[in-house]
Amino acid sequence: MTPRILVKYDVSDAVRINAQASQGFRRGGVNDSLNIPLCTDEDEAIFGGFQDYEDEMLWNYETGVKMRKGGITFNAALFYTDITDLQVTLDAGSCSSRISFNVPEAHTAGVEFELCAEPAEGGFASAPIQHIGSRYTQPSDQIAGAGEFVSGLPFGGAPGTDVTLVDPELDSYQVLNLNAGVDFDSWSILTYVTNLTDENADLAFDRERGGRARLGTHTNQPRTIGLTTRFRGPPYSPLMRGKSAARRPATRLAPGRPRSARQPGHV
Length: 267
Prior knowledge:
Layout: E1 4-10, E2 15-26, E3 29-30, H1 41-47, E4 52-53, E5 56-69, E6 72-91, E7 98-117, E8 123-126, E9 129-132, E10 148-150, E11 163-165, E12 173-176, E13 178-183, E14 187-194, E15 202-207, E16 215-219, E17 224-231, H2 238-246
Antiparallel strand pairs: 1-2, 2-5, 3-4, 5-6, 6-7, 7-8, 8-13, 9-12, 10-11, 13-14, 14-17, 15-16
């Protein structure tokens, strides 16, 4: 059972505030065996004991406000997530393997804003923006020397002893999306632009074989522009008409949603 408590209060016809607390979990598991022939004695001793990992548990706390005046809607939310036994994936040094283990305590926190407009009957537009702060991909990236990598593998005349230096701290970034369209009972058209500013964000630092091979970062999706159309049959009953109206994003009142662990690097 994962409990959720939600409280809403209408300050007026135009202002609603809400707060919620919800619990979530992620099931534990068993790690694959290490690639022992590649492991140094030190790495085998360090990582060989991580045979399994426990369930991850979290409590999410959120409060928000929704304000509407005329055809303009403003949403804001503040959230904090308290995580126990956070599941983290770690490169097992020279063993060319990855293992999962538990970090006893972690947390995430942030804010979200969204501005929506309904310039005419059936029309809508919104511009959500998201900010992600600086962070690390895994806890060990925060220790001294974490960005120094030596392959130890001579190849093509290279001695394999050269040091490659990288900064494992990922920069903060912002993503702005735009949505606009019209939505009626029988048809709708939606145009959208994701990542309007074409932000090139580093999402995670990746190292192959514990840094002995490829080094790189996972990046986000570039600017994407699209168009979606939808046609619906006639509303044969009041129930169907209610379902049609519920799909209109400009008129939906969403008190909030539970969140899982957003960034495993927030420790």
